[in-house]
Amino acid sequence: MGTTVERTIRRSRRPVLMANAVPSRQYHRILIATDFSESSAHALNTARDLGLFRDAEVLLLHVFDAPARGMMFGAALPQNQIKDYIAEQERCATFNMVEFIGQVGFKPRRQILRLAEEPTGTIIKDCARYERADLIVVGTRGQSGLGTLLLGSVAEGVLQGSEIDVLAVPLPQPPGQEEQP
After folding, report:
1. What is the DSSP code string of 112-166?
2. Residues paired with 29 in a beta bridge
3. Could you tell me the pLDDT band of residue 177, with boundaries at 50, 70 and 90?
4. pLDDT for res 176
5. Considering the domain boundaries, does residue 134 fall inside one?
6. Do residues 13 and 148 make contact, with C-beta atoms less than 8 angstroms apart?
7. Domains in the chain: how many in total?
8. I want to staple 40 with a disulfide (CB 3.0 to 4.6 A). Which of 34, 69, 81, 153 is the partner?
9. Nearest-angstrom CA–CA distance, 23 and 8
């Protein structure tokens, strides 16, 4: 299933819903994964425009990185110094989350930040399971040419083995680059 879904999403210029069963009801808890990019903003706005947020609890998740953490552990720095560094990275992520929410003009029910200690796709799926979400919304990096071969590692990681429905939303093609029938 994964390769067929990934091929479909890679080639599609429209949102694709990967449903794990025949939809039987409206989505009640929606988890939107964001990296604060244009792709994430477009995915959120598309899900909202599709009416998916009506009567749903919407959660916004950002997985943040602390790139120097590994070097700090390797240098045997004190634990409190490493914790302070991670806390600073989380403060930056919080600031960026607030800024993103202002830009997209949407206030989620709750904002969630997670430290990237595993692959991001795994963290998103784990968070969705923990939060009992019934839909994950993720943006894809729809590109032309060689880029169409790449779905994006995060979107691909979310799609692989997801037990929860996933709405994958590509960025629209720039004007003049629409595919010919």
Report:
1. EEEE-SS-HHHHHHHHHHHTT-SEEEEEE---SGGGGG---HHHHHHHTT-SSEE
2. 57
3. low
4. 61
5. yes
6. no
7. 1
8. 34
9. 19
> Is 124 exposed, middle or buried (CB count within 10 Å of its CB: 0-12, 13-18, 19+)?
buried
Reduced to 3 states (helix: H, G, I; strand: E, B; else coil), residue 24 is coil
Q: Is the pLDDT of residue 164 over 80?
A: yes
In the chain, what is the straight-line distance between the N-terminal and C-terminal CA atoms, in Å?
Answer: 26
The three-state secondary structure class of 48 is helix
User: Residue 46: inside a domain, yes or no?
Assistant: yes
Spatial CA neighbour of 55 closest among 97, 109, 110, 18: 109
Amino acid at 11: R
Task: Give the pairing of strands 110-115 and 135-140.
Answer: unpaired
Q: How far apart are CA 60 and CA 153, in angstroms?
A: 19
Round the average pLDDT of the chain to a whole number and report it: 84
Q: Which domain holds residue 61?
A: 8-65+108-170
Average pLDDT over residues 112-118: 92
